[in-house]
Amino acid sequence: MLSISRRHAIQYVHRPATSFKRYSSQKFSFLRQLGIEEENCGVYDGGWFGNGPILKSVNPTDNTTIASVRGGNQNDYEKVIGAMDSAKSSWTQTPAPLRGEVVRQIGDELRQNKSLLGKLISLEMGKIHVEALGEVQEAIDICDFAVGLSRALNGSIIPSERPGHFMMERYNPLKGHVGIITAFNFPCAVLFWNAALSLVCGNTHIWKPSESLSLTSIACNKIITRALERNGFPGAISSLICGEGATIGEALVQDKRVELVSFTGSTKVGRHVNQVLASRFGKSILELGGNNAMIVHKDADLEMALRATLFSAVGTAGQRCTSLRRLYLHSDIYEQFLQRLVSAYKNVRVGSPLKDGVLCGPLHNKEAVKKYLEGVETIKKQGGKVLTGGKRVEGDGNFVEPTVVAISHDAPIVQQEIFAPILYVMSVNSLGEAIERNNDVPQGLSSSLFTAKQAAIFKWTGPDGSDCGIVNVNIGPSGAEIGGAFGGEKDTGGGRESGSDVWKQYMRRSTCTINHSDDLPLAQGIDFKSLKEKKRLEFDELLPSIKPPCYGPEYRNRVREKHDQTSIYVTGPPFIALPEIFGLESGRIRTDADRLGELGYAVVLVDLTDGDYVKEVDDTLPTWIRKHLWDSTIIRHLQDAIDYMKGEVHVERMMSYGYCWGAWVGSHLSAMENTPILGHVSFHPSWIVENILNGEGAVNELAKTIRAPQLLLSAGDDPDFIQRDGSVHKILIALGTIGQYCDVHDYPTMKHGWVTRGDLSDPDTHDAVFRAWHEDALPFIKELCPV
């Protein structure tokens, strides 16, 4: 049998308990203790001002004006943001525990003013005094939570898979400001849910409150800014702008300087806010509509469920985001529970929120009363039966009767949230059906199940249970504690406010990897191809698979082929390859490019012949080389290659190598380029250097212009071919005289030119080439430019 104690019944009257007149100056005395006058400025950026429209604060118990507030306009908004920009750095750079100390002092001031603030909230919003005091206590509690949090804004230390690496997460204040837009029903608590956390996280915030709750907003912001200024911080850290949502609210949402916006309000407006923020990649916390359900299973403690139903549905006159809207009763208890519920409703006392014993105060304004009455008529048209209530209470105030309705779950009105004390009651045959009905609405804020079965509890809270952000058991959907994250799913919006790890939304999260080794491995276990003589892995893709870009006459009029530098890990400085007089037809120059590529060096080939090849070696050769060496077209090809290396590959330091006369072009490149490009490896000295320089004495002059080490590899028949025996040694001597590092290696089995005359199929020739690279050239290169 269902048994409900009568001691929980409350006297119900059909008229307000007290008829209020306009407040006298004596009645305003408690408001003055909060810094509220009959006329107030509603914009704060370190000082109080306002140039926007006049906002009237109206007492919902009798619809008389309490006081007025001069709100802000667009120019005022810009002034506030400018002050916040100036104030931000001082707060961001303050250590978090010191920021927490300021928030502790804010909490202490809230304690000192709890009674006064609670009375103001009841006067201006209309919720009963005990609930208003509870709201202020929420603000105090979240300040206490934030104080502790200020010493625990810690990121994770993450084990790195790479040796000699340290990985961690770090949280820093947001680069932009935080915007807070609050609704009328919780004018104090929701501000502090956001502001207390945002402040300890090092942010500045701008608050745009409901225009009908401007007095409470001014009082709350004065408490915050007194603590800030007392500690030497600019008041603009906590800025306020009262004003109309269509102007001030829209400006705030559109402003890229406001990085995060926390919005509490209707789903319709919240959807617009979300779209605007998404279009500018802003961050959002949305706390929108709730169509909250409670399920009473047949094994539940019915007396406890009845008390929870009454408070959750009637408290704050049904104007909480978490107010109970839908009640699903198991069919076995439906009739008995519903009978007791209707009886309890008829004993609810409606009246002044400041009078003891009142459970249901007024709706906030006349528009809310209108929507309540329209909702009742729609319910009737859709087959619903009003079991109690459903009427406006006669008088000057915005009082309505708490209403219980028996209705089908399929009625369209059940899908909607009416912000008033209207409760839909429906019957279900099983827990599974009840969960399905709970989830079968667009909103997803809060939900509740009353049961004694452990299996039902875990099903309800599990993946096949409630789809809401708040999932309660054996308490109603209202009355969330600050320690948990508050927010919902689906059309309720997204993001969370209040406790838990909500603070992370107010910070910029960075993953930091610190390499304290002398190696550069990649993650994900990527395997590098390593050289046989080296155990360390050094590159993730070989260059030989990609054709090197070429610069020269036959390439100028078509798209150049370039390295894909996004997929190549270049471990050493690039090379400019300078072929001999036979140009790029020389296969050896490309083979050498491949060898360098295997070591992680990028290579650019430059054709310096301009297509005019020398067919015979005779006395005209020095003249031909001199002509082409200084020919503007050839130099342009060379400059193209240099510009590519600097502009496309983004390197400044390069090396060059060349055969025959190409080696000496490289020497002149070293002399002409007054940059770190001077690294030069010459793979064959030219016997004609003296002819090019017009005289033996010019060798010393050339040597003086070279600012990089030289490596000269001499073929075995060079002394015969050179005709001027000793020119190689003369330049080496000259380089040594000025202190430059230089070296020469002789290969007796090689022919002059290496490429054109050496028989690479001959084992001796192949061995010489191999030794030239691996024994002489590569050690020299690695010493100059280690990979």
Structural class: alpha/beta
Strand segment count:
32
CATH superfamily of the largest domain: Aldehyde Dehydrogenase, Chain A, domain 1
Question: Which architecture of the largest domain does the CATH hierarchy give at level 2?
Answer: 3-Layer(aba) Sandwich
Highest CATH level, the class of the largest domain? Alpha Beta
Number of domains: 3
Q: In angstroms, what separates the terminal alpha carbons? A: 86 Å
EC number: 1.2.1.3
Keywords: NAD, Oxidoreductase
Active site: 287
GO molecular function, one term: aldehyde dehydrogenase (NAD+) activity
Keywords:
single chain, 787 residues, Aldehyde Dehydrogenase, Chain A, domain 1, Aldehyde Dehydrogenase, Chain A, domain 2, Rossmann fold, 3 domains, 8-stranded mixed beta sheet, 18% strand
